Amino acid sequence: MENYQKYLDPKVLNKISRLDLKARLIVEGFVSGLHRSPYHGFSVEFAQHREYTPGDDLRHLDWKVYGRSDRLYLKEYEQETNLRAYIVLDTSESMKYGSGEVTKLEYACYIAASLTHLIIEQQDAVGFARFDNEVRRYIPSSASMAHKKNVLQELTTLAGERKTRTGAVLHTLAERIRNRGLVILISDLFDNRDEIFNGLQHFRHKGHDVIVFNVLDEYEVKFPFERMIMFEGLEEIPHVLADPRALRKEYLQEVDHFTTELRRRGLEQRIDFVQITTDQFLDVALSSYLARRLATKRSR
Questions:
Q1: What residues have CB less than 8 Å from 173, skipping those under 6 apart?
Q2: Helices (H), the chain
Q3: Fewest CB within a 10 Å sphere: which of 2, 17, 86, 220?
Q4: Cα 230 from Cα 55, distance rounded (Å)
Q5: For residue 118, what are the CA distances in angstroms to 22, 100, 123?
C-alpha cells in the first residue's frame, strides 16, 4: 500500500460514503450537479419571474400571468451545480501532541483524507490548504481522482514545527478563495479566539458555508494526570513542573469555558462547530455529524 493511502480508513469511508456532504448555503460551481447555484438558468426548480425582453426564449413565458395581467413574464429556475469545498488544515506545533497512538495532527489528517474522498466520490470539487503561522501549501479545488491522490500525498509530508497565526491565515485564504463554497477548518484552535472568529466571519461575509472540526487529545479534555509532572510547552510556551491535582478543577473549568464559547460563537455566525477527541472512533464521530447536518438541511 502506498504511503498516502494510510489515512483512508475503510471503516470510516464505508460509513460516510452513504451520506451526501451538501452545502447549507447557496454555492457557486462549475458544472451541473447536486447543489443550488446562485446563477439563474432554466433547470428544474422555479426561482422567480422576470419581465420579457426581446430575444428571450418564448418557451418560458408564463401564460397564466399574461392572462391575468396582459404583460409578458418569464419563469426563471435555479440551476443545480457542484459544490466546491476547501479543507483548511492546521499543521502547527501544538497539533503534534498525542497521549496515545495517534497525535492530533494524524487524527486531523484522517478527517481531511476521509472528507476529500467523500467529496470527490460524490463528484464535487475539493481544494486544500495547510498552515501554521502562514499558508504553507495551497492546492486549488478540483474534482478529479488524480487530485485526490495529490491531496493525500500532501498529508504525508506534515511535521508540525511552527507557532500558529490562525486568524491572519484565515483572512489570507478568504481573499484567495474566490468561488463561494464550503470551508472546512480542522484545528485544535489553540490561538486567539477573537482573531479566529474574525477570520471565520470573513468567510461568512463572502458567502461561504463553514464547518470547524475542533480536534483535541483525550488528555487535553479529561486531564487524567495524578502525580507531579513536567508539562512540556508547545509553540513557545515554557515547560512547567506542577502537581496536576492542584490544577485539575480550574483546568477543567477553563476547558468547559473554551468549548462553550466556541459553540456559542459558532451559533452566532451560523458556523457548524464539531469537537472531536482523538480517542473517538472517527467513523462514528464523522458519520454521526454528517447525518445530523443532512437532516438539518432537509428540515429547512
A1: 86, 88, 129, 131, 135, 138, 183, 203
A2: 10-16, 63-69, 104-121, 145-155, 166-176, 193-205, 218-222, 244-268, 282-299
A3: 2
A4: 77
A5: 11, 27, 9
Measured between alpha carbons, how far is 91 from 130 in angstroms, rounded to an integer? 6
Whose grid coordinates read 497539533? 95
Which residue type sits at 96? Answer: K
Is pLDDT at 22 greater than 60 in this prediction? Answer: no
What are the backbone angles phi and psi of residue 156, rounded to the nearest 5°?
-85, -5
Amino acid at 80: E
- Give 13's Cβ-side CA count (13 Å radius): 17
* pTM (two decimals): 0.77
CA distances from 218 to 97, 192, 206, 225, 255 (A): 10, 22, 35, 12, 12
For 129-170, the pLDDT digits (tens) are: 999 999 999 999 988 888 888 888 888 877 777 888 999 999
146: left (phi over 0), alpha (psi -120 to 50) or beta: alpha
Q: Which amino acid is at 151?
A: V
CB atoms under 10 Å from CB of 35, counted, come to: 22
Q: Are 28 and 40 in contact (CB under 8 A)?
A: no
